[in-house]
Amino acid sequence: MMLSKGLKRKREEEEEEEVVEKETLTVDTWWLDSGPPTAQAPPVVASNSLFDLSVLKLHHSLRQSEPDLRHLVLVVNTLRRIQASMAPSAALPSVSSPPPAPMETDNLLASSDAALSASMAGLLEDLSHIEGLSQAPQPLPDEGPPGRPIGGAPAGLGALDLLGPATGCLLDDGLEGLFEDIDTSMYDSELWAPAAAEGHKPDSENGLGKEEAPVLDEAELDYLMDVLVGTQGLER
Amino acid sequence: MGVSVLSKSMPVQENQPWVSGTPADIISTVEFNHTGELLATGDKGGRVVIFQREPESKNAPHSQGEYDVYSTFQSHEPEFDYLKSLEIEEKINKIKWLPQQNAAHSLLSTNDKTIKLWKITERDKRPEGYNLKDEEGKLKDLSTVTSLQVPVLKPMDLMVEVSPRRIFANGHTYHINSISVNSDCETYMSADDLRINLWHLAITDRSFNIVDIKPANMEDLTEVITASEFHPHHCNLFVYSSSKGSLRLCDMRAAALCDKHSKLFEEPEDPSNRSFFSEIISSVSDVKFSHSGRYMLTRDYLTVKVWDLNMEARPIETYQVHDYLRSKLCSLYESDCIFDKFECAWNGSDSVIMTGAYNNFFRMFDRNTKRDVTLEASRESSKPRAVLKPRRVCLGGKRRRDDISVDSLDFTKKILHTAWHPAENIIAIAATNNLYIFQDKVNADAH
After folding, report:
1. Which of B193, B275, B331 faces A37 most closely, judged by CB atoms?
2. pTM (2 d.p.)
3. Which domain, by its residues, includes A55?
4. Residue B180 near residue B230 (C-beta atoms within 8 A)
5. What is the mean pLDDT of residues A140-145?
6. Element containing residue A217 per DSSP (H, E)
7. How far is residue B333 CA from its own chain's centroid?
8. What range(s) does the SERTA domain occupy (chain A) (predicted)?
């Protein structure tokens, strides 16, 4: 399963998937053996595995750069049906499904729209420039629920803001885990924070480093400023 | 009904006929033009290939009106949407021919976002004998020109030229699933998951939105548009289908925004067949008006249904395409096969309907005799001029020779796209990256 945005696949997720695969084999048989499904309450185990499978599909669908809306909507609706049938058995301890699903599915659907909203606001702006439409009024701009960032907020972060705590199985350690993989080495330049860098060195070397560093740093700073502003030679 | 058929299998890739091609060669749409003389296919790589039927000639009795490649061109290229940082696929979702109004042919082809109008013209003569230019087009030395001549048109090898005449872009936020040319021959519609737009064929910088089912709050989204089509005769009527299995017939005269349907066609859920997957299998993947305009044909996962425009409560006919899959829905859900979108087609006289299935099988149902047949599109069983043998899928128990058991079906071999010649019993079947054209020679000119 492809993951994006540097998310690490958690070991628990892998195990969960294996369990789902094993259980779907038995679910198949169940569908064949039992009479019309409405005649008897479906086994909780089978419902759970179907639920898990649906949640996995939903997550997979949302992770696509551009989700297939039909697929997404059908999976969400199926998930709601399964939830509705599972409600009476929610108390069972063996249930290892993700946190309250109705909120989660709504949040997930909405969060995909935050990304959609952000980019759609821009797209609709473009559309209105291009087309002199005499179309019927549409809900513009596409804000979704109040408080959702549009336009200015980068699409990716907007979606992730909402994913946060509600999706335990995606981000076990909350938002902090998201930034683990980001490479910030270009900002950790010794030029800009010599004291901090040298603080890591053993004390014996410190003295030497501190005496020499300021002189070098100033010269290099000047050089850098020249480069940033544009070398004087070029201005002629 | 044309049960006994002759066949000619024609892989789309001419230079590598019997080697399975790259994913880009997967055929994504098939469409005959209004006379049936031309057959267009679109593929995943954004290419369009047009076949032309050879006129039956007494000199070559074996050719028997076969289809040969007429033109190939690149319709769509992959694009990059910088706003969303997404690549827009070049796959051709639909092709629709315009009615022919002069010597040229025109068609509309669309990918997920952009519709293009292509003009196809023939050139079989060229002028020769210019006064100022020589044969290669270079200017002549005027001192060598002593007399004037009139250029004459001389025959040349047929050249088919294709040019993009219009590009209808930026009309859709979501993925385009259908296009349909209006009977007025001036407008056409394009539908995506949530909206339907009306375009004028000559105007590319604007379109009218005629259906919008996007909820104010995306969290409330429970239904999407899956297919739509204009009525073949009434230019104000069109139908669109939804993921919940309903059909809405709309009248453009009633309002500018056709969110309120004129008629809603929906069959109540059968309580004995209820399951978690009821909604998914009821999702309509294709809708087609009959040639008469009196009926509609819909395809959902397990059935094809015929609806009478005068009766909204339920279809007048329901045909089981592959009911043996009803007990396999869970594993089909797991493999995503349950989301496959099959198309359906009417024959010219609206008496037979056809649709594809798995294992490269396709099915035909005769509405009058109520007989049906399962046939297979494969290289092994389709030598040129061979007669196709009916196939059977058995659930278990008594099994005849040549029967296939449900568990041996190959779900990767799906026939999603099929087309029927508008007048004759000729069908085009797309099986992944191969195109098969079958002809019924027994009743060649019947209907």
Report:
1. B275
2. 0.71
3. 45-86
4. yes
5. 40
6. helix A203-229
7. 26
8. 43-90
